[in-house]
Amino acid sequence: MSDTLANGVRTKALYFVAFQTGFVALLTLKSGYLFDKEVALSVLLGGLIFLLPNALFTAMAFLFVGARQGKNVVLSFYLGEVLKLTLVSMLFVMAFALLEVVPLALLLGFIFSTMTQWTASLFLSNKNRMINGC
Fold this sequence. Notes:
The chain has 134 residues and is mainly α. The protein has one domain. 86% of the residues lie in helices and 0% in strands. The chain contains five helices and no strands. Helix 1 packs antiparallel against helix 2, helix 2 packs antiparallel against helix 3 and helix 2 packs parallel to helix 4. 23% of the residues are buried.
């Protein structure tokens, strides 16, 4: 795969992570405005429990691109997914065991952040259509 195509794929993946980071920030600010500091921090932690492992997965999944790297692509994808799921479970255990959190807010922060997987796809595909005029 050419370097420009590989960079394009990686750039799109970076847009997803940036979109998700912005969403977590907005969700935290909104919950702090509507509720209180403890709820906002719990929402932030839930968002980070999603965001950090997902960013690691994205970095690993797009480490290799192209048909010639097929085996490496599959291996890095599966390894990234295993690390992501392991890290999510470890971060949840640590959050509940070591921190004083509002459990519902933490879980909702995680769930709403996870939903950005779908909304980012819709938003970014519409953005590309507007830019390209299609």
